[in-house]
Amino acid sequence: MNLKIKVCGMRQPDNIRDVASCNPNYLGFIFYDKSKRFVGEELDAEVLKEINPSIKKVGVFVNHSTSYIESKVEKYGLSLLQLHGDESVEQCKELKSKGYAIVKVFQVDHNFDFKVTEPYKKYVDYFLFDTKSEGYGGTGKKFNWSIFDRYDNEVPLFLSGGLDMDSIGEIKKLNKLNIHALDINSKFEVEAGKKDVDLIKKFIKLVK
């Protein structure tokens, strides 16, 4: 499995630089103000410009307007939009028509019906499946991956939801699943928004 790695939920300049030095494939920045990892006014556009261009910068949005999303793309040089709310097929179509790469997120549990993803397929590049919660954003908890027995694999996915060092063995058993990338966050932190760089290095080495 040639899996890519996304490290999500950063905001501190030095930590961003240190995580970037680990050469993940994606770095994620959360623009949702109710998240514990909301970038707020902390995110320095100049720091993001320093990042090796081979590392794609992902903006995480929740029910934001297209104009708001575009303003952040322009300011921070984002190359992938992660839509983590109840964004409509129409908004995905609009953003896609403007040339943006899109990850549409769905919160899942054991009753999840993959039919809800059907209308989005033409207008997104990836799906991200995360553990269902009452709000938006990550829970740091795993869901039952057996639901992927019902997934058609047409759209490559980001696997999320409480991934940690102990997940690697189970992930490697999903070799028939069309996984594009692993999305890691809360299990690799010193505190909310600050990543454990040594742990991330170890994870990347073991996955690659």
How would you describe this structure to a colleague?
- This protein is an alpha/beta fold.
- The chain has one domain: Alpha-Beta Barrel (TIM Barrel), CATH 3.20.20.70.
- Helix content is 24%, strand content 23%.
- It has six helices and ten strands.
- The chain has helices at residues 13-20, 45-50, 66-76, 89-97, 168-172, 197-207; strands at residues 4-8, 26-30, 56-61, 80-83, 102-108, 126-131, 157-159, 179-184, 189-191, 194-195.
- The strands form two sheets. It has an eight-stranded parallel β-barrel with strand order 1-2-3-4-5-6-7-8. Strands 9-10 form a two-stranded antiparallel sheet.
- Strand 4, helix 4 and strand 5 (102-108) form a beta-alpha-beta unit.
- The relative contact order is 0.18.
* Major pleated sheet: 8 strands, parallel, barrel
Structural class by helix and strand composition: alpha/beta
Helical segment count: 6
Helix proportion range: 10-25%
| CATH fold-level name | TIM Barrel
Distance between the termini: 8 Å
- Please report the first level of CATH classification, the CATH class: Alpha Beta
- Percentage of residues in strands: 15-25%
Spatially, the strands of the biggest sheet line up as 1-2-3-4-5-6-7-8
